[in-house]
């Protein structure tokens, strides 16, 4: 037997999948136990279309996690983490991530299956975050003795708290606050 080739979806099928995923993220954010029927209704497609695209609820959840992780990876890429000055990259990535996390919050809170595309993307995002922090440390923006994995975790916590409390704020202003808090803390300014 020859290898099976994966054919890309037709444009209309791609639109259906995108509509299902976008509806699923909205519906499941409001009701994590929502049925596939409720997701189909919100997407404006037949229940059979959802089941044709996603064999079961777990397949839909995994697709949500992967799609959200790809969106997040694209947001990081757009910030030019390897080439932009570290402070610029940190600000732009933060603003981008706030927008993605605001739109895909439910899916990004899912714990990715070990070995899944979403898990691999999250590991790469973590690695790239630490790389930007290393560049920031090299420029004297972060203390030379700082544990960068801890700094990354604090940064993620600041993102999470911002989304819980200020999700509707201006992403650039929120990004400035997050980066400033990360790099300078909450102490008095000179």
Automatic annotation (TrEMBL):
The keyword Zinc does not apply. Coiled coil: none annotated. Keywords: DNA-binding, Transcription, Transcription regulation. GO terms for molecular function: DNA-binding transcription factor activity; transcription cis-regulatory region binding. It holds the Pfam family TetR_N. It comes from the Bacteria. Residues 35-54 bind DNA. InterPro entries: Homeodomain-like_sf, HTH-type_TetR-like_transc_reg, HTH_TetR, Tet_transcr_reg_TetR-rel_C_sf. Residues 14-72 form the HTH tetR-type domain. The keyword DNA-binding applies. Gene3D superfamilies: Tetracycline Repressor, domain 2 (1.10.357.10). PANTHER family: HTH-TYPE TRANSCRIPTIONAL REGULATOR BETI, HTH-TYPE TRANSCRIPTIONAL REGULATOR RUTR. This is Transcriptional regulator, TetR family.
